[in-house]
Write a structure and sequence with these properties.
By secondary structure, the protein is α/β, with parallel strands linked by helices. About 20% of the residues lie in helices and about 15% in strands. The chain is built from two helices and three strands, in the order E-H-E-H-E. Strand 2, helix 2 and strand 3 form a beta-alpha-beta unit.
Length: about 90
C-alpha cells in the first residue's frame, strides 16, 4: 500500500481573531474549543494507517512553533517548507 504524504498549509497573519491571534502566533497555534491547537488537531487526523509524516508549509517565523506544537502530540514533520513572507493566492489590488 502506498503511503499518502499529507501537506498541512499553516499560513495566516493573525488578524482575524485579534486580539487572541497575532502575527507571532496566528489562530492555527491556539486551542479553539478543544485540548489541542488547530495545527495539532489537523496533524492528528493524519496519524493513521495509510498516512506518512506530514509536510508543513508555513512562514519561516513560525518554524520553531510548528515543530514544538507537533512534538507535543508526538508528530514529527517529514519536511517544513518555509515561506520567507506571506504568499496570498488572491490577485493584487488594482
Amino acid at each position: 500500500m502506498t503511503e499518502i504524504t499529507p501537506v498541512l498549509m499553516s499560513g495566516g497573519a493573525g488578524t482575524r481573531l485579534w486580539p487572541l491571534s497575532r502575527r507571532a502566533k496566528p489562530k492555527q497555534f491556539h486551542a479553539l474549543g478543544g485540548e489541542h491547537t488547530l495545527i495539532q488537531d489537523t496533524a492528528l487526523r493524519f496519524a493513521a494507517e495509510g498516512f506518512g509524516p506530514p509536510m508543513v508549509v508555513c512562514n519561516a517565523a513560525h518554524a520553531d512553533l510548528v515543530r514544538a506544537q507537533l512534538a507535543e502530540v508526538g508528530v514529527t514533520a517529514k519536511a517544513l517548507i518555509l515561506e520567507p513572507e506571506a504568499a496570498t493566492p488572491a490577485p493584487p489590488p488594482p
